[in-house]
Each structure stands twice: as C-alpha cells, then as structure tokens.
UniProtKB/TrEMBL annotation:
A GO molecular-function annotation: ATP binding
Swiss-Prot/TrEMBL keywords: ATP-binding, Kinase, Nucleotide-binding, Phosphoprotein, Transferase
Catalytic activity: ATP + protein L-histidine = ADP + protein N-phospho-L-histidine
Gene: kinA
PANTHER family: SENSOR PROTEIN CREC, SENSOR PROTEIN RSTB
Domain Histidine kinase: 286-498
UniProt KW Phosphoprotein keyword: yes
Transmembrane domains' residue ranges: none
Signal sequence interval, chain numbering: none
Keyword flag Kinase: yes
Top EC category: transferase
Species this protein is from: Escherichia coli
Name assigned to this protein: histidine kinase
EC number: 2.7.13.3
Length: 498
C-alpha cells in the first residue's frame, strides 16, 4: 500500500488470538488494539480472558484451541473524509485509485500468500461486512471503506482449510469461530468507536424488536388460551378460580400489547426521544420472554392432566397464575410509556415503585434461585423517598439494571445468587449490586455504549437505555467502585436533587 493512502488512514484495529496465552498471562488469549489517527489518541488496548472469549462466542475452550493462533489487521477509511483531505493535498485521484485497488474487506493470508480473491471487492464477502452494515442502517465499516488482512499458517491452523478453488476457507467449526471472533471483538468494536450509529440507527435496531414482537406475543397468548380451554374442562372445582384468574390476566396482557404497539407507532412516526421506542421495545421483549415460559407451563399442565396428577396440577396452576400476575405488575408499572402518559414528570415515592418492581420479578428470582434484598438508608423504612421523574422511564431503567444482574449472577458459578438494591435518601442515590462475575476493567468506559454487549445473543441496549434515562432527568448512572479483584459489580444511579 502506497504512502499516499497510508497517510490518510482514519483508524486501525489489530487483533491477536492465541489459545496458549498472550504475553506473560496465560489466561489472556485475545488482545485488540485500536488506534485512532484522526483524533491522535493513544492506542486503546483490550485484553480478553479465556472465560470472556468462551462466553461471548458461546463455545468451550477445547473448540478455541483447535483454531490455533491468528492475527488480523483492519484499516478503516471514511471515503468522504478521505476525499476532502486528499483534495486539500492535491492527491485525491492517486489516493482513490490506491484505495480502489486495496479495498474489499479482509483478505486471508496463509504463510504470507493471499488465498484467492479474499479481501477483494469482486470476491466473496466472507466476513459479512456489507450485510451487517445494512442491518445496522449504515455503511461505516463495509468493504469499500475497509482494507484488512487475516494471517494464518498451515502449521498452526490445520483446521482452517482452503477451498478447492482457493477463493476462501472451507466451512468448518474453526472457520466459523474465526469469523465470529473477528465480528464480535474487532468489527463491532470498531463500529462502536467510530460512532457512526446515530439516533436513526439506534431507533432502527429497536424498530426490529417493536415490529416483530406484538405478533409473536399474540401468538404466545393464543397458545396459552387454547391450553387453558383444555385445562378448564379437566381440573377439579377447587382450582377453577386459578384458571379464571389466568384467563383474565392473559386478556389484560393482550389489551396492553395493543396499547404498547400504538405507542411504538407514534414514537416511530414522530421520531421523538429514543427512550419512547426503547421503552416499548424493552417491554415487548420482556413480556415475550415470560410468555414463552407461560405457554411451556400450560403444556406441562396438559401432560399432568392426562396422567391424573391432581396435586402437581394444582401446584403448577398456582405457579402459572403468579407468573402471569407478575407480567401484569410489570406492564402496569410501565403504563406511563403508553400514549396517554408519555413524558409526564410527577412526584412519586421511589421506594414504593422499587418494591413493586421487585414483586414483579418474584417468580423469576425464585426460578433462578436468586435472593433479592432491598434496603433503605437515611430515613425510616416507612417514610417515602420522593422523586420528580417520569415514572415509566424510571421503571424502564430499573428493569434493565435488574435484568442485567439476573443474567450475570447465573454465569458466576455461585449457588448463593444475590441482587441488592440500596436507596439512600440522604445522598439521593440508588445502588444496585450483584455477586456475578462482574465487569472487566477493560470494559468500564464502554459499558453504557449502545451496541456493546458481552452476552452471546445480547443487543447491547439495556445499560445504554438505563444511562439515557438518567441523562434525560439530569441525573447520572455510574459504575460503583471496583471490588478487590478489580472487577465492577455495582451501578449507582444519582437521583435528581430537585
């Protein structure tokens, strides 16, 4: 690559992976280094441990060891900015010709020799750069603005085999893992850093959730209702009340989904605050998750009824009733997000709201063996702790923080899973802590960034939304201080002082 182009690189992303360990720390198996030449910042280096890499890629360490060590370099050019800078220096034609020659994505080099047409604009988009850019609503990191190289060797990477036409790698568990690794630890991180995903792209991502969820939720409710119809004719009189309660609550959920759907359409059409759409999308996802469990329980009930297991049937009905009531509790707390109550600040008792939210998570806590604790300091427990905020937005932020903790306490390998909320009336703070694996120091500055996630199928919206809620109220959401092992296991919401 000629100097006329290398002088105009916007950003470099380098990735090293070695299952045997990088440097003097064998538990660190992946390292990335991001250099922003335009802003003149120091390289941003991030180390990832065995535990982190296996979790994000959803594989075991044995599968990673089969890949062998690899290295990748990705150079990103913003063509519009490149044109402006090169024109200023009078060498635009030469720079464009050089970029057109090299661009095309990430080429694969084995022992220094390029594999076929990989990394050329006319070749296969083996890393899916263009398709993922389309899904995100922007072309920040795509093949026409990217030049890259993946370095492998015949000796170290026997599981990465060329196709017979040498136009890429044969599909295999190893090649798929390399693709996922580059996408999640290099490409996604580069995209986030560039910050090309503006409000429209964030809304587009939430739109996907909002548009698809209502129909799926209604289908889940229909399944549950059909199951209840079969159950009603078979259960004894002493549990008919529970069956009717479940039916009534399902009807309520169906009506609420319609209201949330209307709210999402208004938010989309007017392009108002992203929090509106975020709220609706989060509610939809949460309800869908719980309803999937509900329909599973109705199937279990039908199986038990066919075997005449009446004691077990009664217990399951009671559990099903409580879980559906919990969904309704959550929906009622988020009711201000629907058109009739949007954006209205009000003075309310935050401690009462927190108690109600925790009550709504009761079935989920029980299911995952999580012990919740809620403490109030600075005032007597019976005294209200009042805030002037949008109740629905606050519910949304707290739900996202709790949901985040519910997931991570299950990944820590501990049997005593705990989530603690402490509301301090004197310092006007709400602290949420859990005893999960915690947040790596490498991620502390990006944890609230839209799209950042360490969950295999996460969307990276929950903590971002919670932070946006705080900003909306002129408040702040921060990480609590690190624990002795250097990892972060708590969030502090600084409440408005008014």
């Amino acid at each position: 690559m000629k100097k006329v182009l290398t002088d105009l690189v916007q950003a470099d992303m380098e990735l090293w992976f070695d299952p045997n360990g990088i440097g003097d720390t064998p538990e660190v198996i992946l390292r990335t280094s991001l250099t922003d030449y335009q802003r003149g910042n120091e390289p941003e280096n991030t180390n990832r441990t065995i535990e982190e890499v296996t979790h994000v890629l959803n594989v075991n360490f044995e599968a990673l060891k089969k890949i062998g060590p690899v290295r990748a370099t990705i150079r990103w050019f913003n063509r519009e900015r490149l044109r402006q800078q090169a024109t200023l220096h009078g060498n635009w034609k030469a720079a464009k010709a050089e970029l057109d020659l090299w661009c095309g994505g990430i080429a694969i080099y084995r022992d220094g020799f390029r594999i076929g047409f990989s990394g050329q604009s006319t070749g296969e988009d083996w890393l899916g750069l263009d398709s993922s850019a389309l899904k995100r609503g922007g072309f920040a990191v795509n093949r026409i603005q990217t030049v890259g190289a993946l370095e492998i060797s015949r000796k170290e990477n026997p599981g990465l085999v060329d196709r017979s036409n040498r136009e890429g790698l044969i599909e295999s568990p190893e090649s798929n893992l390399v693709r996922d690794m580059l996408s999640k630890f290099a490409i996604d991180e580069l995209r986030r850093y560039i910050g090309h995903e503006g409000q429209e792209e964030k809304k587009a991502r939430l739109n996907d959730i909002v548009e698809s969820a209502p129909a799926t939720i209604r289908a889940r409710i229909l399944q549950a209702e059909q199951g209840l119809t079969s159950i009603r004719s078979k259960v004894p009189a002493d549990v008919q009340e529970s069956v009717q309660s479940i039916a009534n609550n399902l009807h309520f959920i169906k009506n609420e989904v319609t209201r949330f759907e209307e709210a999402s359409k208004l938010a989309t059409e007017r392009r108002e605050d992203i929090l509106e759409l975020a709220g609706v999308g989060t509610v939809m996802s949460g309800v869908l998750h719980e309803l999937t469990r509900t329909t599973g329980h109705t199937r279990q009930l039908l199986q038990k009824l066919s075997k005449d297991e009446s004691p077990g049937t009664k217990a399951l009905l009671t559990k099903l009733d409580s879980e559906i009531k919990a969904i309704n509790t959550r929906l009622r707390q988020l009711d201000p997000l629907t058109p009739s109550g949007r954006h209205r600040k009000e003075i309310f008792n935050l401690s009462a709201l927190l108690n109600t939210i925790l009550e709504g998570y009761g079935a989920r806590f029980e299911r995952h063996n999580i012990i919740p604790e809620f403490k109030i300091s600075g005032v007597d427990d019976t005294q209200p702790v009042e805030v002037n905020m949008v109740r629905g937005f606050v519910s949304l932020a707290i739900e996202n923080l709790i949901t985040n903790s519910v997931y991570w306490v299950q990944q820590g390998g501990r049997s005593d899973r705990r989530i603690t909320l402490e509301l301090d009336a004197e310092s006007r703070t709400l602290t949420l802590r859990d005893n999960g694996p915690g947040i790596s120091p490498a991620d502390k500055d990006r944890i609230f960034t839209a799209g950042f996630t360490m969950r295999p199928k996460g969307q990276g919206l929950g903590l971002f939304i919670a932070a946006e809620v705080a900003t909306y109220h002129d408040a702040r959401l921060l990480l609590d201080s690190a624990d002795e092992d250097g990892r972060y296991r708590g969030f502090v919401l600084e409440l408005p002082k008014e």
